[in-house]
Design brief:
The structure is a homodimer.
Chain A: H1 3-9, H2 14-32, E1 39-47, E2 52-60, H3 63-66, H4 69-85, H5 97-113, H6 118-136, E3 142-143, E4 146-150, H7 151-162, E5 167-175
Antiparallel strand pairs in A: 1-2, 2-5, 3-4
């Protein structure tokens, strides 16, 4: 399944095509999610003349897919995404516990300060946490090159197209002169 | 002080020139070692078509020096060095305690198995640890492009030439499919 086919099937309606790809992608991604990935690519992206640098490893199942243009473009897009957005982690499960606790504390005290009833406070904290995840987790972020989809959607579309399990395994981002984390 | 001057002063004798630069470099490096570094570059190096990737940050004192060809070449050389040799840490102080303990244990039990007297055993362990550091610590390694000098010598020569404090601040190396460390 690629974008052109999806577009044709949806009679050129881009929103419908993205929706189509997302649904197709999620279903396929779930099916492939358990398969082993040991191939792929390590790629880098250097921004602003060496002020920011990113290293990304993405894995797939076969050496063949790991060398395709689609896969190469995907890994490059991830590196650009990380340079631009500085995510905390790849997904919710990998946000460090201490970072999460700190966020929760801040939201709880903000909500309390609003003077609203207890029941509403919980909802406020939940809403703020959800927003935090969508900013801090690479896969939940809007894709910088097309904010109509998330990075997860981009990944799912590649999984659907290649028919392989694909994962963003790890990334690191150095910003010149930043304090140690 | 640059290589040409050193060569001229040493009448074209490369060994003497390197020696000259090393001595000069060490003296200058010690003088500059305490000065603040917040400028510099982040650079990457991708090896073997995306099987190995390295990200390096090196710092200097001024934006001007950080943009020079000499500095750029140095950071690139460090990235290539890390890709080729997979160092454990930048220097002895940054080798993780558990890694060091494990090495010491192995050397101690190897030495014990040799059946030599206690006094000699200590020397054997010391010798093996010293060899370990020269392989595991980036700055103690022979420079891959010129094994007659160490990476520290290369750094000292740049410090001497630029007149600035320069540090290799951090590096990371991803090898496709390696197990997590």
């Amino acid at each position: 399944m690629d974008c052109k086919v999806a577009l044709a099937e949806c009679n050129g309606n881009i929103d419908k095509a993205i929706d189509h790809l997302r649904k197709k992608g999620i279903a396929t991604a779930k099916k492939r999610g358990s398969r082993a990935t040991s191939q792929g690519q390590v790629q880098s992206y250097i921004h602003a003349g060496g002020k920011i640098g990113v290293l990304v490893e993405a894995n797939c199942e076969t050496d063949f897919t790991g060398k395709t243009e689609d896969f190469t473009n995907f890994v490059r897009d991830i590196a650009i995404q990380v340079a631009a957005t500085n995510p905390v982690a790849i997904d919710r499960e990998r946000v460090p516990e201490d970072v999460l606790e700190k966020e929760k504390e801040i939201y709880a005290s903000q909500a309390k300060a609003s003077g609203k009833p207890e029941k509403v406070l919980e909802k406020i904290v939940e809403g703020k946490l959800s927003k935090f995840f969508s900013e801090a987790c690479l896969l939940e972020q809007p894709f910088v090159k097309n904010p109509d989809i998330t990075v997860q959607d981009l990944l799912n579309a590649l999984i659907a197209k290649t028919g392989e399990n694909i994962v963003v395994r790890r990334f690191v981002r150095f910003q010149l002169g930043e304090s140690d984390t």
